[in-house]
């Protein structure tokens, strides 16, 4: 695995490099406690100067709870503390990732996320989404043919399966596997497959992970946001993709609310033997922005990495790591 011992040895080619190196120099000189104070100041400043936007942001983080909660009025700073640790404690991993990214579009997305963690810089985020291609299917990066075996992990209501077929054609794949844990969502997948006359789709009511187990879904309701847990109303199997799919696979997509790292570990043999294209949601956990790429790189160092952005203009969501 490539190790970048000194990022300053890398050539600075443009303003995106300057911004990243400036951010890293700023972070490098800070303790976690000092970084918390910096971020807290920036949050408080925005809450006073742009109250409407700040309240929307605070509401979003407190509803989803993936990155930590925030309540300045009651001195609850979990989100701020998580952002501070993500920057200070992972500086080498962030530098590694920056120089592994293959284009400046990807590097600009990474910069925007890091500056948002530090100072809620909405302007940088607003510049990212060009709506050129559908999510998970950047046609400059993803190419498919009639031998494609597409694995959709986090099938929701079948929208990604429909988008896949619309982007690449009804005859331009061999088989589609879609994994979904919510029974009500699976009913919609079945209806969409029938509605759009999509053939050769295997629906699996299972979760994807690094090991085989039994897990639970909290409740059965149509939702894009549902996570497996140790207890709940609905019991189902957790499986390794390596074990659950016997044939070779060519393309894996994941969007499973923070469980991407665990599911990726369960795809190790497929990645090693098949080198499938990967499109992974990388925004559900701060560490996933670099950790998913590092896992893939450790398995197969020949992968090339890209970010593409499909999310909000006011806060960083829906960014996808492509590994090709």
How would you describe the overall organization of this protein?
The chain has 324 residues and is α/β, with parallel strands linked by helices. The protein folds into 2 domains: 12-126, no CATH class; 149-281, Rossmann fold, CATH 3.40.50.150. The protein is 43% helix and 15% strand. It has 13 helices and 10 strands. It has helices at 15-28, 32-49, 51-64, 78-88, 91-100, 104-119, 122-126, 159-168, 183-195, 241-244, 260-265, 268-274, 288-299; strands spanning 149-153, 175-179, 201-204, 206-208, 213-217, 234-239, 251-254, 277-281, 305-309, 319-323. Strands 3-2-1-7-8-10-9 form a 7-stranded mixed β-sheet, sandwiched between helices. A 3-stranded mixed β-sheet has the order 4-6-5. Helix 9 (183-195) links the parallel strand 2 and strand 3. The longest helix has 18 residues, at 32-49. It starts with 14 loop residues before the first helix and ends with a strand. The model has no long low-confidence stretch (mean pLDDT 92).
List the domain count as a whole number: 2
pLDDT averaged residue by residue: 92
CATH top level of the largest domain is Alpha Beta
Structural class: alpha/beta
Helix content: 40-55%
Order of helices and strands, N to C? Answer: HHHHHHHEHEHEEEEHEHHEHEE
Strands of the widest sheet, in order across it, are: 3-2-1-7-8-10-9
Based on CA atoms alone, the radius of gyration comes out at 20 Å
């Amino acid at each position: 695995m490539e190790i970048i011992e000194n990022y300053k040895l890398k050539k600075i080619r443009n303003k995106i490099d300057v911004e990243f190196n400036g951010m890293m120099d700023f972070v490098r000189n800070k303790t976690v406690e000092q970084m918390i104070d910096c971020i807290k100041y920036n949050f408080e400043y925005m809450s006073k100067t742009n109250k409407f936007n700040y309240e929307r942001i605070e509401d979003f983080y407190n509803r989803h709870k993936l990155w930590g909660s925030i309540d300045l009025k009651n001195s609850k700073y979990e989100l701020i503390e998580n952002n501070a640790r993500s920057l200070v404690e992972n500086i080498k991993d962030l530098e590694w990732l920056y120089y592994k990214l293959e284009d400046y579009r990807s590097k600009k997305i990474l910069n925007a996320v890091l500056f948002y963690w530090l100072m809620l810089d909405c302007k940088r985020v607003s510049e990212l989404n060009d709506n050129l291609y559908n999510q998970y299917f950047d046609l400059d990066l993803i190419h498919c043919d009639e031998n494609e075996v597409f694995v959709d992990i986090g099938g929701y209501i079948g929208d990604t399966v429909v988008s896949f077929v619309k982007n690449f054609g009804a005859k331009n794949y061999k088989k589609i596997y879609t994994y979904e844990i919510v029974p009500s969502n699976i009913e919609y997948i079945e209806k969409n497959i029938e509605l759009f006359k999509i053939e050769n789709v295997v629906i699996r009511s299972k979760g994807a992970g690094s090991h085989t187990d039994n897990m639970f879904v909290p409740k059965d309701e149509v939702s894009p946001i549902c996570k497996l847990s140790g207890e709940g109303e609905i019991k189902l199997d957790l499986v390794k993709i390596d074990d659950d799919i016997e044939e070779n696979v060519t393309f894996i997509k994941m969007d499973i609310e923070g469980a991407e790292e665990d599911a990726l570990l369960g795809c190790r043999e497929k990645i090693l033997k098949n080198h499938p294209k990967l499109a992974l949601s990388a925004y559900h956990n701060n560490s996933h922005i670099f950790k998913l790429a590092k896992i893939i790189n450790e398995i197969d160092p020949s992968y090339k990495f890209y970010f593409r952005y499909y999310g909000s203009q006011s806060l960083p969501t829906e960014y996808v790591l492509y590994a090709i």
